[in-house]
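Quick one:
INPUT:
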């Protein structure tokens, strides 16, 4: 089965893109998506496969995050019509506050959605800055105690350019989909490294990065 963790945007205006993948063509999808992780799922879901999608929502004043959870589901359901995977949606909503209590609650709630031997996919495109840190911690826990395999951690990047209409508004262009999974595994490797001096550790890291 697959478990998907995806941050939701808190903004109202959303844009769909056909993302060009950088370095991992296996996740490049011809269609347009608002949520980059759906490009990965469009290419990797299988008929009858269980897919648990955990949407990470912040309780914003305008309620946009909750609305965007529904938009996410509709987008992925449309993709799934030609695939036939068994998708379950779960939304974890936390206050838009970056306190230790909120972070610990979200961490525990995310771990509570793990299952043994699952493939895990994450999307850190949207949401507040602490969320990727929490997601990495959950994935590390999943690998160590649930036998999980971290398949993809994606980030959808765009450039914003000013619209030439005198309003000062901008529009997003040049969508690129990056797979951050090597960064996750690099962090895991450095945590496992044991050297007597910082000089030895830096030399070992240089060798690792040259591979």
């Amino acid at each position: 089965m697959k478990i998907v963790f995806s941050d939701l945007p808190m903004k109202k205006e959303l844009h769909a893109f056909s993302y060009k993948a950088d370095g991992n063509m296996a996740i490049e999808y011809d269609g347009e998506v608002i949520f980059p992780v759906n490009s990965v799922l469009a290419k990797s879901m299988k008929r009858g496969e269980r897919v648990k999608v955990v949407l990470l929502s912040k309780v914003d004043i305008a309620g946009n995050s909750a609305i965007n959870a529904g938009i996410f589901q509709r987008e992925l359901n449309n993709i799934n019509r030609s695939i036939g995977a068994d998708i379950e949606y779960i939304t974890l909503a936390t206050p838009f506050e970056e306190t230790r209590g909120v972070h610990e609650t979200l961490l525990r709630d995310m771990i509570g959605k793990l299952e043994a031997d699952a493939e895990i996919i994450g999307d850190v495109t949207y949401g507040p800055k602490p969320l990727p840190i929490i997601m990495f911690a959950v994935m590390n826990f999943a690998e160590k105690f649930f036998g999980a395999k971290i398949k993809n951690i994606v980030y959808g990047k765009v450039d914003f350019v000013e619209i030439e209409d005198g309003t000062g508004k901008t529009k997003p262009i040049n969508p690129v989909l990056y797979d951050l999974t090597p960064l996750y595994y690099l962090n895991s490797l450095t945590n496992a490294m044991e050297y007597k001096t910082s000089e030895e550790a830096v030399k070992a890291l240089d060798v690792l990065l040259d591979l």
